[in-house]
Every structure is written in C-alpha cells, then in structure tokens.
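re: ur question from yesterday

yeah so i grabbed the chain u mentioned. its 167 aa long if i counted rite. heres the sequnce exactly as i have it in my notes:
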Amino acid sequence: MKYRLALLTAVEAARRREELIALCAQAFGGSPWREPPLGAVRTVDRLLDSAARKDGFCAAAAYADDGTDDADAALLGFAAGWTDTALSGDAPTFELAELVVAPNCQGQGIGRSLHDGLLVVGSPGPALLMTLDVPELTDRYVRWGWTVVDRRRPGEEQRDHVVMRHA
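ran it thru and got these structure tokens back, copy pasting raw so excuse formatting
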C-alpha cells in the first residue's frame, strides 16, 4: 500500500477529530487494548486538549497515496507528542503520546515511518513514552531503539504500563 506522511498542527489535528476517533476505535478495539468505542473519544479528546496546551506539540499523519489531497485522503495512521515533564518528573523531555495505525494497514511500515518522522521533528534529544506492559508493544519499541526505564500503574488503570526511553 502506498502512503504519504504529513505534519499536522494542533489546529489541523483538531479538524480531523472525527477521523481520529474512528481510527482509534478501530485500532484500540482489538488486542492488546480492548478499549470500548467511548475510549477512543476520550483518547482523542485528551490528546487534542493536551495539544492545545503543550509546548512543542507536533503530529504526523499517514494518508493513502491515492492521488487525492490530504483533506480527502483516507487517514491510515497518526502519531503525536509534545515536550513535558509528566513522564520524566523533572527535565522537559519530548513525550511520544500517541501512535496509532488502522488495523488493516498494520505491518506495512506505516507505524515505524510515523514514529521515526515524529522523533526527528519533535525530539532533539531523549524521548519518553508510556504504553501497556505487554510483549506485543514493548518488543516493538525495543526493536525501534527504546529501553524500559520504569513500570507504573497510572491513575485508575487496572493494567501495568512501562515508561520507555529513546536516546
């Protein structure tokens, strides 16, 4: 499948809210997340709310390369992050906040392209992320150069998460 990447501002990401919700509902409805559809709404609204307030927000989208412009092209994947101290606890660090690819497009390099592109744009130094502590996710990030630096159970979560660092 051919695709193209584009950087998005917080305003452009907000304009794509409904598409982002649909993408997250597809991707997070299955393993390992198993989130209900309302979870996608909460995820996207949390992301967009944070995007409007965080320094260094950047996002990238993957679109089907079908000859249409980005406004009409199918959204295949999305990644976003910003500079914060939520995961580091002290020094401002780029935090990869979201990386999602439509299930029918996974395994084609889209997630890795979004990941790599976002780190180049958003992170001049080390970066952090937090994800579920399951091999399906942690093994992928380890292959992409991340290492586990902490384990947590955030807020009301019932599942363990890992904090990972990319140098």
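noticed a couple things. The first helix runs from residue 10 to 15. also The mean pLDDT is 89.
anyway ttyl
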